[in-house]
Amino acid sequence: MTAQPQTIPAGYRRDAQGRLVHEEQIKPVDKLRDELVLALVERARTTHEALVQYKAAAFGEIEAFLDLSAAEYGAKIGGKKGNVSLLSFDGRYKIQRAVQESIAFDERLQAARALIDECLREWTEGARPELATLVNDAFRVDTKGEIRTARVLALRRLDITDERWLRAMDAIGDACQVVGSKSYIRVYERIGDSDQYRPISLDIAGV
Q: Torsion angle of alpha carbons 40, 186, 77, 91, nearest 10°?
């Protein structure tokens, strides 16, 4: 059963503990603080909604432009579209649409680790302690208890031709799964006549 909201009598306000306090008992400074917070929150909500609408419009207009551009060559862009950069005619402004994928490993990562451990047990007898350190660091979990994907994937760049190692690298590739993605719009302005761009921040912490 849903609790009915309590009606606040005229001349009273509810405080942070849920108690009803008469207006005359509230200090002027507390009233001013309340007015300031509510006013800033309302403006924040308006700004947030404007950013939501801007992001939706920007993604839609960029996708429509990409389809139009591809149509000039008789091509059709299918599936999920990835990263793209668009520049103004004079090169002063740049818009980037970036897609950041979240990657996780399935149970096949354990098979890869077992094969790698076989290699290490044999190789460390000869002397490759730095490789053992590199591998152990790659498989060490972060503060959230999760494997750091970038470090595990970096193992695939090592130039090792041992058949067990190669099978382990295949297992890592197969175990790698895209579990989600986030899309971003980034806006940049060129710095003077240089080839460097600075972001026009849409993040409140960056302005």
A: 130
